[in-house]
Amino acid sequence: MAVVKPFLGYRYAEEYVRERGIGRLVAPPYDVISEKERQRLAAEEYNFVHLILGKDESGYGNTALRLRHWIAKGVFVRDSVPSLYIYEQEFSLNSFGRKKRTGFVALVRLEDFEKRVIFPHERTMPKYSLDRLELLRATRANLEQIFCLYNDPQRVVDTLLEEHKRPDTELLSFTDRHGVVHRLFRLSDAEAIARIRKVLNPRTLIIADGHHRYETCLMYRKERREALGDPLEDLPEDYTMMFLVNIHNPGLLILPTHRLVHSLPEERLANFFEKCKAYFEVRFFSNEREMEEFLQGAPPFTIGVYERRGERWGTITLKDPKIMDARLGEEDVNRHLDTTILHELVFREILGLNKEGREESEFVDYLRGTKDVFAIAREESKYQLVFVMRPTPIEQVERAVAKFQRMPQKSTYFYPKAWSGLVFRMLEE
User: Which residues on adjacent β-strands are paired with residue 244?
Assistant: First the structure.
């Protein structure tokens, strides 16, 4: 089943960490970095953003040269012993209180989705996979880990990880701009690694974050195997770097991703709430706070809506789940998901966006649940409709993958993000 193994990780050299601070060198994952944030990070000469977002007129050719130059110069050093890397993130958020999520970074053997060992849970947008493929071809490095979940109800691996989080194994610690504390520990004890591999071996994995990167790795493995005549032995491309977290870890948290609609022709927006009444019960509120309070205890299948044209705050609640049963069929386990209801009935039917998502991407922005969607709805005049979503339960993710079905893109937002640059892997090793 899931084949996990340690590796010789590359990390920032102590000299650079001491002089500059690890917090100035590492970066969030590429897909959450705004242009403003990229410029801020890039002010540091050796920040990891120069690698994960280093595309220029040469494509990623200069990025690959930069990576090899930094290794030759000693900016990065390679560990001498194959290791797993324990990654802990401690954070506070809204009403959730103080939480701590711990997992580990390892190499995992790539498996085609048809083998049902590693499962996607969301749909993807192909253009992002192709960009990451270009980067992987140029650098031949796993620069960012793919975030996956495994099922260990007895928390055997969690216990082992906690035992090996010690001062003598700690490699780095820093606090990011959002107050999340990141710590990385090296686990090189052969016996502990063997026990972890044994626990994971019969397990399957769910991709929580990094679907595009995983698809990229599958494409690159296929390319390399075809180029080499599909050898019997393992290739470096048969494995990729992953951050693995127990689905029962108490620090695992899913936040919503809100949808913000812009640039639609005015005729599509006309009588929006009236059109919704064909499928939904509609309620209106005096302001966003009233709506927010209602959403906290709202019935199932409820979505918050801000309409700029009428300056109205409201909610739409599906009248009857049988509407979705009839539309998608009872075999679709995601049919009652809030994001499915929104994409199928509101985006496709009421607003006229196509099902494949090509047109949707032109008119919809996504806002992660850590940001104030109400403030943005008021202040950003370009947004015509703002849909305030609630989190997708982890149990729904499990049901979807059990039936080999994918949710609409951005149905989940696992918080916090796993940062890039703490450790990475070169495929030549």
Answer: 104, 148
CA distance 412 to 405: 15
Task: Name the stretches of the chain with pLDDT < 50.
Answer: none
CA distances to 87, 283, 344, 390, 406 from 208, in Å: 16, 34, 23, 17, 12
**pTM listed for this prediction:** 0.91
Query: pLDDT tens digits, residue range 125-175?
Result: 777 788 999 999 999 999 999 999 999 999 999 999 999 999 999 999 999
In 3D space, the residue among 290, 342, 280, 281 whose CA is nearest the CA of residue 312 turns out to be 290
Which of helix, strand or coil describes residue 85?
strand
Determine the angle formed by the axes of helices 126-139 and 61-73, rounding to 10 degrees. 40
Contacts of 48 (CB under 8 A, 6+ apart): 25, 26, 27, 41, 143, 420, 421
DSSP state of 357: S
188, 301: one domain: no
Q: Characterize the bridge pairing of strands 239-246 and 146-150.
A: parallel
Phi, psi of 126 (to 5 degrees): -55, -30
Q: Which amino acid is at 194?
A: A
User: Do 351 and 379 share a domain, yes or no?
Assistant: yes
Which residue range(s) make up the domain with 205? 4-253+415-426
Please tell me the total count of domains within the chain: 2
Say yes or no: 320 and 227 in one domain: no
Do residues 321 and 205 both lie within one domain? no
Report d(CA 426, CA 142) in Å as an integer: 6
Q: Which residue has the tokens 């008119």?
A: 363
* pLDDT tens figures, 280-300: 999 999 998 999 999 999 999
Q: Which residue reads 């849970």 in tokens?
A: 121
Inter-CA distances, 260 with 263, 349, 384, 393, 409, Å: 10, 17, 8, 22, 14
**Distance in angstroms (rounded) separating the CA atoms of residues 173 and 112:** 35
DSSP class of 113: G
Clarify whether residues 34 and 175 are in a common domain. yes
